[in-house]
Structures are given as structure tokens and as C-alpha cells.
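Action item from last week, closing it out:
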Amino acid sequence: MARYDFASDNTAPATPEALDALISANSGFTSGYGSDTVSREAADLIRATLDADAEVRFVASGTAANSIALATLVQPFEAVLTHEHSHIATDETGAPGFFGHGLGMIPLPGLSGRIDPASLVDPLAAPDQAHWQAPAALSITNATEYGCVYTVDQIAALTGPVKAKGYRVHLDGARLANAAAAGFDLKAVKGLGVDILVFGGTKSGMSPTEAIVLLDKSLVRRFDARLKQSGQLPSKGRFYAAPFIGMLKEGAILRHAAHANAMAKRLAALSPFKVTHAVEANAVFVEMDEPTLQRLHAAGWFVYRFIDGSVRFMCSWATTPEAVDELGAALKGLA
């Protein structure tokens, strides 16, 4: 039987803290559509975590969160500046364009998923004209698709010129907890010009849930109507919100993220294959030819080949040292 321990942090179960919070929320009657006390408490905890006055809404998936966020920031005839390997550009089946009624993407280069600031110069300087989708927003992912973490200064170097043009900023934080556990200051986000943040829940060990954080509160007007039209205004909203209470109230989200990060470092140290990106969060990427990858699959370990050609191993809150050591031994046997 194939093992999916390292295929993705999505393959892990939900944490005890998230499940306990769900059970606690499953009591009595309450108002619907996110107006309940559970949703308010979860939103308060997110605001406290970010030290920011923001509006918070909960949806079912990162794809929905990112796509609705970008549709809020960008007109259909405009485009989003983003890393060429970002999730919104490569792994959401055109959902941002679908929800945004045709909004475009301007892919930018950069090592390990971080946008090269120099790549912003030309698109930001290009004149508006009727035959292309000019940029109107920047999307940044932290931690990146390659498990690397932007510093506050690195993000500021990107958002500064974008905000100077009057454009918007979206932060995809599907693995924001892993970035925070690696040293990224969550309380700095409010000062970086970010208009909408997606605070990831699912990859952090919750049941399916993501928080859309509207740091620019002027965007909240009719936002719930946008969610409803998109099928992302759940009537029993407390069950999307509750896991955030369990994970944020006593700091479990950072403890679990720190564990996942540590397991990735442990795996990287055991790997006989060349590690291709710095291990800063919970991902390990290695050079591996196709026959070797197929032998790894045949040995029972399922993992993906990633966009840049490397093979990706993801660790999660549920990754055990024993599983890491077992995989490390299997990799040494293949090498």
C-alpha cells in the first residue's frame, strides 16, 4: 500500500486541537452565515495574532480564498503580478481568472519561489494601453512554493514600488504558520501594505478551512455578497471558524508548524540526494531522476515531481521522527 506521509501537508489528519474545537462548537443553536459567536471568537484570535484591525471571513479552500481575494482587488481587464511558479499561476485551474471574470497573470522569475524585485521594474513602468492586461495587484506567497521564507524586508522591497503605483497586494499564506515558525513576524504584515491576507488553516493541520483577512476594511462592502455568489458563505459558518480557535488560542498552530519545519530539516540531513532549495519551512526538494522516483513509488512512498523538475517531500504536524528516519533509510537504499 502506498504511503502518503510526505506527499503533501494536505494528506495529514487534523490536529487534536482543531478537532476538539469543532466538537466544542457542535453544541446548541446559533445564527448562520458567519454571524455566530464561534466565528467572532476565531476572527478576534486572528486579529490578535496579527495585531491588526481587520475583517475576517472563513471559506473552504485556499483556491477559493485566493481567487475571491484577487477578484476583489483586480478588474477583469487587469492582471496580477505573481511568481511564475506560484499556486495561483500554476495549480488553481484558472480559478482566479474564473472568479475574476478574466483577470490575468503576469508571471515573474525569482529563486526558490521568491519574486526577484528587479522583475517588477518593467511591468510597473509599462504604459497603460488597450491591448494588454496591465498590473493592478501583486501576489506574494509566504512560505513559498519551494519552502523558503520571505523576510519582512524582502516583502517590503516588493510591496513598496507596487503600493507607490497605487496597486493592491495579496498575500497567500497557505503555509503562513510555517513561515512564522521559521521567524517571520506575523505582526509585521499590517505594515507591509497587504490589502488581503489568506491565513492558511488546512495545511496547518485543521479540517478544511482558510481565513480571508481583509486588512483594508474598505473592501468589506458587499464582500459577503461576493462570497455568497461564489458558494463560499457557508450557512454553518462556525464549523469553518472553530478550528482556528483550537489552533490559535494556546499557540498550537506555531508549535505544530515548528515541528513540521524541524522534521523537514531532519529529512534533508538524511537525504543522499542533492537538496535543491534551502530548507526553511516544511518542504524538502531533491534532485532525482525518473527511474529512481519510480522505484521510490514502487517501494511504497508516494511523492510528486515539482514544477522545476525536483522531487518534493512535505512534512506536517503529524510527521514523526520515525517516519522521517524510515524514509531516509529508503532513500539511501535507492541511492
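Closing note: The two ends are 22 Å apart (CA to CA).
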